[in-house]
Amino acid sequence: MLSLGGVVAVPTETVYGLAANAADAHAVSKIFAAKERPAENPLIVHLADVTLLDQFARIDHQWVWDCIDRFSPGPISYVLPYSGGLAPQVTAGLTTLAVRFPKHDTFQDILREGNLALAAPSANRSGRPSATTWQSVIADLDGRIDGVVCDVPCHWGLESTVIDATTDTPIILRPGAISLEQLKTVVPNAINSESNNKLQHRSPGTRFKHYQPAAKVYVIEDVASALVQFNNARCAAIGVFTAEQITAPNLVLAENCRDLSHYAQRLFEFFREADSAQCEIILCQNVPESGIGAALMDRLRRAALSELS
Ligand code: TXA
Ligand code: MG
Q1: 178 lines ligand 1 (CB under 6 A)
Q2: Which residues contact 147 (CB under 8 A, 6 or more apart)?
């Protein structure tokens, strides 16, 4: 179906992706239409392995090879100088291309069998939380796409780390499962773009509204006290690393988390469940910003904003 120009949702180790042949302009335009995605937001291209890379992009720095050796295949995308060969919408007019080598058996099989470069954004309607289960893909995209490959919920639950790989220094454009601390073990001068707004804008996706459930999201230290404060609203709560379950009359849905990985893996699905249960407020425990905690706090902050400029 993919080699015939179809758009198919596929499981990956991060979140579900909405895949199409990246060299087929008509197929790629179907991704943008199905998601209602702004044309200015470029797509990540997924390749089975690094031997295919030089058809589309260039690596100018040794540290990029070192990171590929250490972290790929896996949940990290490299923004590289683009050398052409793909549908123009993929790069949204930029001179760079984001490339990822996914680590998911089914997705790897699809990439190898089709021998294709697959453009794949997260398989959700634009502005909605990413889909981490096939049921959520169908909830957002049923009737708009050609198929869904059904599998178990995605392992990480948050999207890949996107790094700028065009410069001397790796810059994290979007935090993800590969943390700054891990990157620094390979390239000690790696930095986060978060503190610098100019750098943020090198990743167009950060400008758009994202990750938002219908309920209002609050990221807080003390979930139990907030429940009392919102006693007239239907609430949902996630995080809360205590053994005992929190309870309150207005608490409709709650998920205590074993650890940060559990929190990350369940977050987007929890947002969707809270919306289905018609919660008005979602209370999210804040977490320390190390390891995957940085990616988690990034998504929580975006979900908590009513609008990004
Ligand atoms: O884990 C993931 O990365 C998932 C799975 C399906 O691979 N994909 C994903 O794609 O999250 P998407 O389109 O939802 O997010 C891609 C992000 C966007 O913020 C986009 O702006 C940024 O990557 N991006 C894509 N190409 C870029 C480029 N050439 N330069 C800078 N940022 C880029
Ligand atoms: Mg997305």
Answers
A1: no
A2: 1, 6, 8, 9
Q: What is the pTM of this model?
A: 0.94
Ligand nearest to the CA of 132: 1
Beta bridge partners of 45: 99, 119
Provide the pLDDT for residue 245.
85
Distance of alpha carbon 174 from alpha carbon 299, whole angstroms: 10
Amino acid at 232: N
What residue type is assigned to position 164 of the chain?
Answer: D
What is the rounded CA–CA span in Å between residue 93 and residue 39? 9
Dihedral, CA atoms, 82, 30, 207, 287, nearest 10 degrees? -100
Q: Nearest residue CA, atom 10 of ligand 1?
A: 121
227-281 pLDDT, tens digit each: 999 999 999 999 988 877 889 999 999 999 999 999 999 999 999 999 999 999 9
Contact 76, 67 (CB under 8 A): yes
Q: Which residue from 31, 44, 72 has its CB within 8 A of the most atoms of ligand 1, so it is best to mutate?
A: 44
Is the distance from the beta carbon of residue 128 to the nearest atom of ligand 1 less than 6 Å?
A: no
Name residue, tokens 């919408």.
89
